[in-house]
Design a protein that fits this description.
389 residues; alpha/beta; TIM Barrel; 8-stranded parallel β-barrel
């Protein structure tokens, strides 16, 4: 109740301020009645269109229960999964392929994240990029290709383990989902098809209708809130998360250092507009979109996953997932210290039991520190202990 009350109060203040300034500047009518009426209408519309979150048991069935209580203390509930295979772990097998799904499952993955693209004939396939050049033996955009043409491509053609996997075909979304359900692997279905919102919603809704088990086996996610809204508006039982990173609109990539990120647009004007849009998106997601969309999780770039940030979402009942965490040491810090589930490109990792003792009393010789987003080992205490001895 407290986060919802806080949300309503903040929304009221911002709505009143927007109405007041707009009316005062444009019409010169600083009427208290008009302002109050405007705020009432805006809050009424917000309440009308807000989507309820799904049953919390469905989110727990997919991601496991939150391993910490709202106050940050360890929960008595069973520990949730530690690692999700991002794009089905493409460092181990061809990206987003059924072969990668099987290998990730064999190596202990309880959940796999995949991406959705559309072919020319509106068939949903499991593929990440807008074009096929990076991972296949083809070239050009994927959307001018039919499903038949897409499935002639070898998604293992440029993989480091090509000899082991080639040829490997791009699977349809339905085929991948059916295989994951048979293996008992949970799914995060990431949607970047923002230019085809209706087709995306229809595809996902039809998929859930065909496979009812997905309501407790899969979560949809997207950087684009309108996709999440269209899907959950028609089926609010679907568990959903929203992906986010700083400078998502203005920068093509982001590794935690803004100065090293490349601008998405060549035009200085477009870059300025995109930066403003990023500020608006960041505010919207963290202030009200999470509630408006009925989210169960937030998927963030790993440098954003700090203790205060994670705790803010935890108090709202929202799970935090961090991507893409390929360093075993970073994964250890996020799993052990912040109790955050990580998405990684590989299922290989340093065995945690050997790398860091469970008990803090027994870990004097190996301490984890986070410095500027990087996780390092601090052995100063072990050196001090050796000197004193």
């Amino acid at each position: 109740m407290i986060p919802h009350l806080s949300l309503s109060l903040r929304s009221s203040v911002w709505a009143w301020l927007a109405i007041y300034l707009g009316v005062h500047l444009l019409l010169g009518l600083p009427s208290l009645f008009l302002h109050t009426l405007g705020v009432a209408i805006m809050l009424g519309l917000l309440a009308w269109f807000t989507l309820p979150p799904p049953n919390i048991e469905a989110a727990h069935a997919i991601l496991g229960p939150d391993p910490r209580n709202l106050d940050g203390s360890p929960s008595k509930m069973p520990a949730s999964m530690c690692v999700i295979a991002h794009r089905a772990a493409p460092m181990d097998a061809p990206e987003n392929s059924i072969a990668a799904l099987h290998l990730a499952h064999k190596r202990g993955a309880r959940c796999v994240e995949i991406d959705v693209s559309f072919t020319k004939d509106n068939q949903a396939v499991v593929f990440h990029d807008d074009d096929v050049d990076r991972v296949t033996d083809g070239s050009g955009a994927i959307d001018p290709l039919t499903l038949e043409q897409v499935q002639q491509l070898d998604v293992a053609a440029k993989h480091v383990l090509k000899e082991e996997f080639s040829p490997e075909r791009i699977p349809t979304l339905d085929a991948f989902v059916a295989e994951a359900l048979q293996l008992g692997v949970k799914l995060i279905i990431d949607l970047k098809t923002y230019k085809q919102p209706e087709e995306t919603a229809k595809t996902i809704l039809a998929l859930y209708e065909k496979h009812p088990a997905l309501e407790k086996s899969a979560m949809v996610s997207s950087f684009f809130p309108h996709l999440v809204y269209l899907i959950r508006k028609r089926n609010p039982r679907i568990v959903a998360g929203m992906a986010w990173r700083p400078y998502f609109i203005a920068k093509i990539t982001y590794n935690g250092i803004p100065s090293e990120a490349r601008n998405r647009f060549d035009s200085p004007l477009f870059t300025v507009v995109a930066n403003v849009a990023d500020v608006v998106l960041e505010w919207a997601l963290h202030d009200f979109l999470w509630y408006f969309l009925g989210l169960s999780a937030i998927l963030v770039e790993k440098s954003s996953a700090t203790l205060p940030y994670v705790q803010t979402w935890r108090e709202r009942g929202i799970r935090v997932l961090a991507w893409t965490v390929n360093s075993s040491l970073q994964r250890l810090y996020l799993n052990r210290e912040l109790r955050v589930t990580c998405l990684a490109d590989t299922m290989d990792q340093i065995p945690l039991a050997e790398f860091m003792p469970e008990s803090s009393e027994n870990s004097n010789n190996m301490i984890l520190k986070a410095v500027d987003g990087e996780v390092t080992l601090d052995t100063s205490k072990s050196l001090e202990a050796s000197t004193e001895a």
